[in-house]
Amino acid sequence: MRTLIPALAALALTAQPAHAEDWAKQATEHDVVLKDFAFGDGEKLAEVKIHVATLGTPHRDAKGRIDNAVMVLHGTGGSGRTFLRPMFADELFAPGQPLDLATHYVILPDSLGHGKSSKPSDGMRMAFPKYDYADMVLAQKRMLEEGLGVQGLQAIIGTSMGCMQAFTWGTTYPGFARRLAPFACNAVEIAGRNRMWRKMSIDAIKADPAWQGGNYKAQPEMAMRMVHAISIIAGANPVALQADYPTRAKAEAALDTAMARQAAGANDANDEIYQLDSSRNYNPAPGLAKITVPVLWINSADDFINPPELGLAQQQVRQMPRARFILIPASAETKGHGTHTWAKFWKSDLAKLLAEPSPQD
């Protein structure tokens, strides 16, 4: 299976700038094997592999603890390699930037079920344990402690699914990360339209006769095409689409290009089901008061998945004593849901967060 360009940002990635540097060449790849992994529902695997890329050099304090680690968590269907693209890495990892690799140890894991980490398509198919965000966060924590020797983080930056995992971290392991930067999510149960479009995609795959209960010999092509189409609508910026493709011919040509790109990097259908359904138990709302570290919460006004008219973030940010919420206005330049990965929109605010003292400092 190819590493997927996150489906929810399909059209947002059509005009990437050229790399200032090849960040992938600077990354060190690790496979961390977690023994006797117990899932929250009671299932167990003898081994779970978490793949992770790191950049920069760990620095140790007087007690020998790594004190400059920042973990960045990707969205649904993505991988840690998402953050090696220029719109993120060039803006943040270069000298003088907020995550300058001369001073930061940057950790980019592939979440459980994604990328090169353990997932259904490795062989178990639909018999793979039905992981959720709590399981994914536990795997990340064990990867940090057992694999990289990291006992605490300067910050967690999370985009989309990673945003929700940042809230899961903050409510499950308060203070492990001294700062949280959740981008492009809400901190409530996945319900309403958000759950509906996910279930539409899952149901489309399961309804395709080619899926065969997950035991297909070839990917269920028609179902996956429907999944791609839904994800393009869910991830796109309508202002930019209207500005960039103002005629029927241009709109249809852009759609054909986006669908071809999706098909070329197609996800495995069973992996897709698990990835979309892993949010089913997410609901950090009751525990938000546990988050006492500085929080930078950013959503964008053109986000179909987290529509600003719900006003959820504006209400919930008050439950965390050191949290700040920013809503990025929609424009022809923003990227819909995918605005979370274009660091130019929020890197100055991230720099302020990283400079803010934390109770754990």
Summarize the structure.
The chain has 11 helices and 8 strands.
CATH fold call: Rossmann fold
Give the helix/strand class.
alpha/beta
Report the order of strands and helices: HEEEHEHEHEHHHHHEHEH
What is the helix content? 25-40%
Cα-to-Cα separation, first versus last residue: 42 Å
Major sheet: 8 strands, mixed
Q: Strand content of the residues, in percent?
A: 5-15%
Which regions contain 5 or more consecutive residues with pLDDT less than 50?
1-16
Mean pLDDT across the residues is 93
Helical region count?
A: 11
What CATH architecture would you give? 3-Layer(aba) Sandwich
Which CATH class applies here?
Answer: Alpha Beta
What is the C-alpha radius of gyration, as a whole number of Å? 19 Å
Overall number of structural domains = 1
- What is the overall shape? globular
Regarding quaternary structure, what we see is: single chain
Overview of this protein structure:
By secondary structure, the chain is α/β, with parallel strands linked by helices. 32% of the residues lie in helices and 15% in strands. It has a single domain, classed as Alpha/Beta hydrolase fold, catalytic domain (Rossmann fold). The chain contains eleven helices and eight strands. The protein has an eight-stranded mixed sheet with strand order 1-2-4-3-5-6-7-8, with helices on both faces. Helix 4 links the parallel strand 5 and strand 6. The longest helix is centred in the last third of the chain and has 17 residues, at 248-264. The N and C termini lie far apart (42 Å). 49% of the residues are buried.
